[in-house]
Write the structure tokens for this entry.
Amino acid sequence: MAQLLRGKASIDPRFKHIRPTVYALSRVNFSGFTYNGNGGGGGAGSGQRRQNFYYQEFLRGPKFGGYQYYQSSRGYGMLVGRVLRGVLKLRYLVLGGAIGGGVTLNKRYEEWKDGLPDMKWLEEVLPDNEKWGQFTKSLLAVKDSVKDSIEIDPRLKQLSENKINEWREWFDKRLDNAIEAAETQQNPQIETTKEELRSKNTVNAKSLSAEESRRRVETLQSQVDALQTEIMNVQLKYQREIEKLEKENRDLRQQYLILKTNRKQPQKKRIKKSLIDMYSEVLDELSGYDTSYSTADHLPRVVVVGDQSSGKTSVLEAIAQARIFPRGSGEMMTRAPVKVTLSEGPYHVAQFRDSDREYDLTRESDLADLRRDVEIRMRNSVRGGKTVSMDVISMTVKGPGLQRMVLVDLPGIISTQTVDMAADTKDSIKHMTEHYMSNPNAIILCIQDGSVDAERSNVTDLVSQCDPLGKRTIFVLTKVDMAEDLADPNRIRKILSGKLFPMKALGYFAVVTGRGRKDDSIETIREYEEKFFKNSKLFQSGVTMSHQVTTRNLSLAVADRFWKMVRETIEQQADAFKATRFNLETEWKNNFPRLRESGRDELFEKAKGEVLDEVVNLSQVSAKKWEELLNDKLWEKLSNYVFENVYLPAAQSGSTNSFNTMVDIKLRQWAEQALPAKSVEAGWEALQKEFQHLMEVARKTPDHDDLYDNLKSAVIDEAIRRHSWEDKAIDMLRVIQLNTLEDRSVHDKNEWDQAVRFFESSVKEKLQHTEQTISEMFGPSTTQKWLHWRSSTEDQNKRKHVKSELDKILGSDAKHSPTLSYDELTTVRKNLQRNNVEVETDYIRETWYPIYRRHFLKQALNRAYDCRKAYYLYTQQGSDCEINCSDVVLFWRIQQVIKVTANALRQQVINREARRLDKEIKEVLDEYGEDDEKKQQLLTGKRVTLAEELIRVRHIQEKLEEFINALNQEK
């Protein structure tokens, strides 16, 4: 303000013509009714005293009446003459100021023009500057014409005519008042010395009544208020002009770069990151590396803290110049820290750190999408019954005129928990706030609601505890428009001077962040803020100073402090990370001297390659081996059904014709229903078994690294769980199997021999299982008792008695049916009763089943021995053959179905299923590759954690060095 009054500050040329008058007003001493032109004693001459008295009378007018002066008519005439001379002199001053304003405008244009980049090359593209040269010459001609004449150039006169007429009317009115006062009052002698005039004024002032003194004070105060309001208006207009020139400068520079780029050959260059973006990337890296500020993460951030609904988010939005955060009616909306990186750019856009989408902040639809995405991210971060989360949401906002800084918006501090909040919400918010403020280089932006009582504030105590000296705290009083009518101005003065709260700060600011309307734009809020402070009693009465108000001044102050602290601390933080890196490298060399430090991502890629190599090895398995694997797996899956549901029921029917008929029926039903699905299941298990076998073989190689075993097993298990055989394979197998089972003629001796061996091996396998069942049921034999010192239980002894009776029945009838008749059961039970053994009928049946099964299987095995050389007899006599070989033919049919099915499954595995399994494994690997939690869970150990930390510290150090180099270049 002082510079403005002295005429040293740069003011819009349109207001230059009021400088002499403002300068004259600044020389008036309003504390009394005397004038001191030099600020000291009576060093000025009589002419100077007359001029001083003229200014005094000019300002006071008739309202400064009350003086009792006595003078002669000569003195009255001298006064009128001097007044007229002053009028003419003031006219010269006003007109000279107007002309000087035009000259200053020309000078400002020349200075601005010299500051632009060299655009000589534009002469080939753009027109010449003839018009600009003519305009400059016309301005210089105005300057020369003033020397010879006081006539004003018509163009300049037209610009300032209205303002000059306004000042003339005002001056004429004041002159008339002064003349009227001179006629009605007797003025003192003009030639009176300065000391005599002061003494007379003092005596006259004492003689004034209290009411007149009060009116004079009110008049003076109103004039001071008017002058202060005018200064505020000038400052706001000047600020808008600066912003307009800055925008024009940016547009011209952008056009300059476009033209320069189009003129030269296009070259691929690396996009240079802005300084604040580089710094933000360092903070993002540190946010995951050091969450407790225990190592070296002491880099500055602007931490926005305050009570809930105190206006924190609104202040941040005003600084970012966009409504980027969701809003609720009394509901907690900020549930997680939001890191906002502000930087200057040609377009007003926002972008999340982990997303490629840019939100155009000039479009309401993009703003709505941005607010919705912020809310979704916040709600996703508080899953599991939490209310607040420590997960940081990183966002970048770029736009014209934005100050470069990094702000972290935290959840508001609450006094009371509601029932829908988690039990630890209040403490969690407090600990989170203390955690961020505990960073010794964090700039604390303390937000205080101006519409509530200061005694209800919770945040000021926390801030004073973390920063008792206030060396990194900036205090912001919000909602001042609501506080003006509710609070005492003296109380607000105390708040903004740091005398009310028990905390200290670097600066104190008062802002207005809106009218409480959700739909208001940032431009509307800004205009409302400027209008409020322009007309506010707080500003006009001197409670606040111009540099303490508006969000723009706040953002300038915060950005200035932020970069000052960054420059003071960045070198120290870089040195700390150098020391950390040296310690980690030493530890790695001592523990893993022959290995290269590889992070989880690199280790995962190596494990991924090994798994995919094993999938490729599936294609190297021979067809013969696949058929052997599939044959074994098919019979393993089908043998139980063949014996229990097909062979045994048919063979125990008693006749060859019944056997064949029952076999045909059961085989057809089986082939139409369960057999194809069981075959596909067997094929899938064979594929899985072979793949796991290849993995086991790979583990036994000398260069195998067991670090990847958990990951490989998890990937394979998940892929196998997801994989399913193609549905059309079942239909294809059903047709093949039905056609194969229709053939009942063994084609040659070789196939007959294979069927006999297959039948023998199958019967022997079932007989072995039956012998084990009998051994468990009847206890050890006599030999086992003597050799192994084993004894029979009471139940086993009872079953032996039952077995002896049942053996008699089979001994008397070798072709006995599978079931016992009622008479046979009664006979056995009565014979046991004679031996004092009481058993039930069901007990006898349970004992009969394994005994008869073994008897039947031995008979079947004997038939297999008889059928070894009966092929030619079978081919000649057919079903009338003396030796019954129908069971051999059945097993030949089963064998042929297994062969055909195995061949079809082998082709399916090689041509389709191995590739589909490869695809499933790749999908699982891709999913695990994007899941950091999975990689941390499956890749563990000191080797991994130490390498991860070392790689991260190196990366952070490189980022810091890159940022420091860019920062030094900017200096």
Summary: The first helix runs from residue 2 to 6.
